[in-house]
Amino acid sequence: MSHTAFFYGTLLHPSILRRVIGHEGSGLQICPALLLEHTRHKIRHADYPAVLPFEKSRELFLTSGHTEPPANELNVRGSLVTGLNDNDIALLDLFEGDEYTRENVLVHPLGPLTSLSHTPPPRTAIPNIGSSPSNAATDAYIVPLRAPELPPLDALPPPLPAQTYIYAGPLRDLSPELWSYEDFVRENAWKWVGTGARDNEYYVEVDRRRDMDGKTLKTEIIDTGSVPGSDEVGEAVAVEIQGP
């Protein structure tokens, strides 16, 4: 089954998306997109953001005494990605964890779809690459650090259905300050891409599931008295491997 998703945080970075799903994404298409009536916030002591429907983020602004953004800023820029398969989604769910729920939304595409494995045109200058991985130029071409100016909201293209990860944790863990992809790339992406990501705890479960080829561990409590040849009395733990 093919899935369409809207990404707005760390997964905006194509190298991080590839790292999670475990392939180059040659069958995936990506374009910039906009989610209306939601806001994207910093999570305290985290590199990644939280997205909330505005009816929930309004409470965050009120309780913190923070001024609400103007109406034309009550939206979230991100990437629309098409062609994800069931295993991709299972890995993405694992990566996002229980801080988020995957929900249906409508997002407005802001440009044509492009292959995730697309490479920049010859002689395209990508500033501020620094010591980033070798595919940094491609990533910066697909998802520019500085997004172009939005068209008037009443001139947006028709919305498309997608799924995205909505924050499900407590509001007290959020800052009213809005999260910036540009700041993330400049300050924290090194922890998530390349050699700096080797010990990143957020990849551990994803890597383990992929290493098991999509299988998961199931633990059961059984009565050892019912196991032939067992002299033990009571219960024991049996572990078997099954599909997802």
Automatic annotation (TrEMBL):
<feature type="domain" description="Gamma-glutamylcyclotransferase AIG2-like">
    <location>
        <begin position="6"/>
        <end position="107"/>
    </location>
</feature>
<dbReference type="InterPro" id="IPR045038">
    <property type="entry name" value="AIG2-like"/>
</dbReference>
<dbReference type="Pfam" id="PF06094">
    <property type="entry name" value="GGACT"/>
</dbReference>
<dbReference type="InterPro" id="IPR036568">
    <property type="entry name" value="GGCT-like_sf"/>
</dbReference>
<dbReference type="InterPro" id="IPR013024">
    <property type="entry name" value="GGCT-like"/>
</dbReference>
<comment type="similarity">
    <text>Belongs to the gamma-glutamylcyclotransferase family.</text>
</comment>
<dbReference type="GO" id="GO:0016740">
    <property type="term" value="F:transferase activity"/>
</dbReference>
<protein>
    <recommendedName>
        <fullName>Putative gamma-glutamylcyclotransferase</fullName>
    </recommendedName>
</protein>
<dbReference type="InterPro" id="IPR009288">
    <property type="entry name" value="AIG2-like_dom"/>
</dbReference>
<keyword id="KW-0808">Transferase</keyword>
